[in-house]
Amino acid sequence: MLLSSVFSWRVFAQYSLVDAYPNLPNFSNAVEIVKANDGTNRLFVVQQRGLIYVFEDSPTVSQRKVFLDLSSIVSQTGSETGLLGMALHPNYAQNRTFFVYYTTGSPLRSEVARFQTSVQNPDSAIFSSRQVILTEPQPYANHNGGKIAFGPDGYLYISLGDGGSAGDPGNRAQNRNTILGKLLRIDVNHVQSPLNYAIPPTNPFVGQPNVREEIFAWGLRNMWKFSFDEQGRIWGADVGQNAWEEINIIVSGGNYGWRKFEGNAVYNVGDPTPPNAIFPIWVYSHSNGDASITGGYVYRGSRIPALYGKYIYGDYVSRRIWALTYDFNSPATNQFLLQGSQLISSFGEDFNNEILVVGYNSTAGRIWRLVSSTPAPILVVAQSLRNFGSVPAQEQKTDTLILRNIGNAPLVISSISTQTAVFSVSKTATTIAPNSSDTLIITFSPTAVGNYADTLTIRSNAAPPVVRIPLAGIGDKPLSVEWSSFVAIPSEYSVQLLWETCCEVNNAGFEVERKQPTTDWQMIGFVQGRGTTSEVQRYEFSDNAAPTGTMLYRLKQIDFNGTFSYSPIVETVVGAPTAFALNQNYPNPFNPETRIGYRLPVASDVKLELYDMLGRKLATLVNARQDAGAYLIAFNAQTLNLASGIYFYRLQAGNFVETKKMILMK
Q1: H-only helix segments in 532-624
Q2: What DSSP element (H or E) covers 654?
Q3: What are the DSSP E strand ranges found in 147-243?
Q4: Contact 461/432 with Cβ under 8 angstroms?
Q5: Architecture of domain 379-476 in this structure
């Protein structure tokens, strides 16, 4: 039941609510908040009397726009009627389609309608695009449910209450020939005449006579909010009658017992006991002023590790908020977090998966964010697939992963591991101070030809406590020569070619080839190979007859048996420099020596400096005025006693500034 009240938030222990968007105007009877799924950072707030607002998810946002005005359609009176739900299509970024749930008309009915968003203005929906896809008469004004959401299966889930009054006088929740008192699941991407949608073939009652095939679960009184966790499980909060509020895990075909049961207690003694009735994982009574549950979300944010994986929910009337712990094996346990004064009509998630709380008030409604005063670490790490590509069998390739702690407490990583020896890590544990980072080197060492896959698992005191990163690579046929690097360093009248191999098998040598953009390849020299060796080999060749202009170089590596392969192509410009340029260091990665090249088109005051990952200057390699030309600077990491990791070198020449990354790997 939706009421109205205004007080200040009361804070208990370390948890509190702060105004998430303090510069926005007040909301009027907001009942839902929805995240955009189109790559924008927008939130939609649904107001009960028909307005939907859209705004940026930023604590400094000060403007909101009317996304859609349905006040001419939806019910304008009644505590449980009006515009109650909104869901964006999973492909909203492409099709601009969304759905709303509202009550309307006299006699009263519930409708689910499809709308389109304007192509020209993504902050505005097209009112005339409305297409009603589902209608259900309502015998009473209360118990309308109203939550709609797309599941991970791509289907639209719709919550409808039992039709209202008190005690479900028509026993509709147990009648599968009506959709009242149910959670529905429909396919909005197809049409199955005479419906404006299709029935998913995996719905539990497909093909059964005298049953509405839209039904996914039944025996529900008035489920006021449901949500999906990361495993796709449905957490549903069902409002009780006079004594008990309940939380259910909703499963396909499940019967949740109303009106025979209210929570775990018998409500209607005259009704038969539903076979296979599913009882709640948690109930609470009305004895402490609680009266109407509002469902929330399993917490997936990073700023409150103590709550990660717990179901955050509240009571609309008492304004109390709890965290429920349930592992699907042991009995659930409940933790009181705080009590507020604005009635709690809904919960939401911001784009960092932090919990938002919708305060319900006709003139002063606010959107709140759940926060904790306890310092917490926040692990930031790229979690996308790390693909090493093709690596010759028995050889190695490394990848660098940066672990950052942007929180305000030490990040204790207790375990870093892979499942196989093919992928290995440079460290198995580490502690990172606040606002600091650490470097993890991952090594791929295929033992034979084939495809390899693994998972890098990081366990820490952050939220989530476990991060899993997929790893992949291909073991390829061994190469005669494995190239480590190949660079061309020009001067005004010549080009110096430098290359490095990691290993060689049966290598007779290298033919050096050169071409200009409009000419064919021409051999200009030969450098003898080192036969078979597993040691790093370095080579040099000077092209002292290079014409001016753009030059391309490649190496034709030839085995003793006459087979050959080509190196990557490098490009450079010969002649007086026409522009400032900072070259990539060679070799890279390096240990301990490397060389850094740069070009000056005019005489300049030059600074070449070395920095670590935190931006601290470690050394000045050049600080002088230099004439126009090409320069090559040698650097030895041993002079600074540097550890393995990522470093940066920065060139400043006049107004030209450029920075590049280099890797020291001991």
Answers
A1: none
A2: none
A3: 148-150, 156-160, 182-186, 215-218, 223-228, 234-238
A4: no
A5: Sandwich (2.60)
User: Mean pLDDT score of the chain, rounded to an integer?
Assistant: 93
Residue 102, pLDDT above cutoff 90: yes
The backbone region for 473, taken as left when phi is positive above 0, alpha when psi lies in -120 to 50, beta otherwise, is: beta
Tokens for 27, please give them.
């909301």
Q: Do domains 15-372 and 578-666 have the same CATH topology?
A: no
Nearest alpha-carbon partner for 158 in 129, 133, 128, 177: 133
Phi, psi of 228, rounded to the nearest 5 degrees: -105, 135
Q: pLDDT confidence of 4, banded at 50, 70, 90?
A: very low
Q: Give me the pLDDT at residue 631, please.
A: 84
Instruction: Look up residue 191 and give its DSSP letter.
Output: -
Q: What angle do CA 342, 149, 301 make, to 5 degrees?
A: 60
- pLDDT value at position 430? 97
**Whole-angstrom distance, CA of residue 498 vs CA of residue 75:** 77
Domain ranges of the chain: 15-372, 379-476, 479-575, 578-666
Percent of the chain with pLDDT over 90: 82
CB count in 10 Å sphere of residue 111: 18
* Token pair recorded at residue 413: 């990583």
CATH H-level superfamily of 479-575: Immunoglobulins (2.60.40.10)
Q: Enter the tokens of residue 430.
A: 């580490």
Which CATH superfamily does the domain covering 15-372 fall into?
Answer: TolB, C-terminal domain (2.120.10.30)
Q: Does domain 578-666 have CATH number 2.60.40.1930?
A: yes
